[in-house]
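Quick question: what would this complex look like in 3D?
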Amino acid sequence: MVAPALLWTLAFFVVPFAAMVMMSLAHMEGRDIVQGHDLGNYLKIFTDPSLRRGIFVSLEITVVVTLISVLLAWPLAWIIATRVPPRWRRIALLLAVLPFWTSYVVRSYSWALVLGEKGVVMNALVGLGLLAEPVQIMATRAATIIGFVHFFVMLLTLTIYSNLVQLSPNYARAAEDLGASRWQVIRLVILPLTLPGVMTGAFLTFVLCIGDYITPQILGGNNELSLPQLIMLQLGRRGDFPMASALSVVLMVIVTLAYAGCARWLKMERL
Amino acid sequence: MTADVHIKAVEHRFNSFTALHRVDLQIAAGEFIVLLGPSGCGKTTLLSIIGGFLTPSEGQVLIGGRDMTHVAPKDRPTTTMFQDYALFPHMSLRDNVGFGLRMRGVGRAARNAKALEMLEMVGLADKAARRPHELSGGQRQRVALARALAVEPDVLLLDEPLGALDLKLRRQMQEELKAIQRRVGTTFVHVTHDQEEAMAIADRIVVMNHGKVEHCGTPEEVYLRPRTMFSADFMGETNRVPVTPSGSGVNSPLGPLAIAPAKGMLCLRPESLGLAEGFSLGRATLVEAAFYGSYHRCHFRPLAAPDMLLTAHLPQGAHPGFGEEVELFGRNPVVLAPEAA
Amino acid sequence: MRILSWAYLLALFAFILLPVVTLVIFSFQDGRLPVPPFKGATLDWYREILTDRALMEALGNSLIVALLSSLVALVLGFLAASGLARVLLPGTVVMRGLLIAPMTVSYLIIALGLLQMFNKVGIRPSLLATGIGHVVINLPLCFAILYAAIGEHQKSALKAARDLGAKEWQVLWFVAAPMLTPGLAAAFFLAFTFSWDEFIIAFLLTRFDVTLPVEIWSMLRSGLSPATNAVGSLVFLVSVIVVVALELTLFRKGSK
């Protein structure tokens, strides 16, 4: 009974993946792919400034996005789980993740709408006299980060919320009973207890963020290219499959390293 | 470290549901009180009110003579031991037990020493560095006790602390709990629905039902001289025989019985029925018997009332043969007035 | 504390809802640009997109791909989960790991690998290729959800069915599937959503017949337009209605 699923995974995941790794060892001659067994592409990734830059751009954006999203989502999840009256909780949660239900592409597009020079935010800031003239946000890293944070705050709020409501209310009561202030209850008891959920969510954020092409392409533009943008660039402009594959392998390695880094907190079964 | 607790006309409502109806209760300092009753009887609500997790709709809670009705749990001289223990899974046993002291600003060395002393008391000093998930249920229960006692509360509140343990372990923990309570002298208020547990550990039992106190007394009083039908039934099995006064005795379906004249329901525990001693219940035949180890559980059919069945617990090796006719005797009669039913 | 909490809640809600609200409002813009000032309401843009053949075709394609790929993923995942829950073989852990593995790999990488393989064996970029890719990403999801749903209780029920003489297909059809209905529904719903919204695999593996996200993407290249707002708002409103309907019917029952 397991066979069909295994065969499917083998045929359409493992084999293509292996083919991709093989391809990363090939190189281009003119417009032709020449199969080889050299590490030329990888060498180039780490010596060519624009390619190497892509790795760092992606890493920086991803780390910043993950941190900001966790910091914003935790208090939101906590407030919904504990401060909002029970009958409003589901509605609050539904509101907090409402934009999930637009398509991913449209969500990035709508941020382009909001953050543009003539967009709502600049209009409001200039209108209120807080800014003399519109500031450029679109096509900068800031726009990419805002777009990402928007998505991952929702995702993390969901994971952290479900973690919080599973905790026995007696943990907080016991701590309070033994003399802890509200802040101490959060810091010494609730926060550590949600760590597995937070780490799982953060890892998910990391993986999805570093591999995403849409958000940096729509919001960040072409001024600095992230890893997925570079991969798409290799494919589109020159059909350089070997280099695209090598960059993908690098992306894969980064994700694996991140997984190893937080594996001890992760319970993947919970996903 | 001990204090008395005075509950004055406490009433509590959840929306339209009244969980407690004007409960009055005096608990002496150092007493081991058990709140006993079926689920939904209000015992846990009352415990939460003493602990400060609920503020009563009306009435007052005095602890050590001071009004605590509106004081937060952490500012009360009480600590609670929770049903699920609520041990912090990310802390060692030492840090769990020392948590309350840490909150009170006690230095690390001092609180570790105290934590170790408390773990010693519950026999877990060698596991101080372990985490809760490495322990068995009984051990967790001990840690929860140590943690609650480490801050030297005047009153310890226990919310069905033995509920998650199997029977054998529960009996053993009851004895330990009782011994520790004697040692520390703290007032214990313990909630349970297990009447055997209540009798085994309590100085006094408070039987509750539908948000009211049905009976409050020593285990012997509550068991042998129940005041209401509910507490008679809840504390154990009873044989019920309706009686009416007649001359110097009473009349019943079994015939005239030689007990003080009264009208109501005569309640007799199975072990108060025998083949000798006490007042006669008339003749009956044995219809069924089973051996329970320390006694024989026998069902008798009275000749005078063949549709009735009396249950008796007879000593080992002392039951008649099936179908044999014997004279039954009763002891410790309790007649409850009809309105008490 | 309380005021701070409410302020925080409102601030974050504003941040979360700002783009969607803007999107919807300016889909009614009576003008060429979906940015302030708002020049009055019109339904022209909705009329335009609803009569746009390419867009409507893409919508249909998306529905077909999402429906079929989630069904295949669901069936494969269900069979695998029931199979692996049956006995603890030495290989169970490895098989489970292999089935879950695609979940940790970026869609872009999966798409790239499939693109190369399809090129080699001569499968043209098409809806079929996209569908295959979507099964690859949704199979681990369906498997994980269903595998988690089979607890000790379910395992003994399956054992009892076999003990009573049920053939393997009967065990699956009469016992496992009805027992796992909530899990099956949740898995299908999630898989459908993921496939429906997936962009990069569809982008790389389709050419002439495209799915909705790819079609929207090509609309974006012509710059900001209220038409794009209208498409986005429509997708959003329909999804929200479906979600709320499900919440009110299926999942409410399930949670109680």
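Answer marked as accepted. The longest helix of chain B spans residues 167-184.
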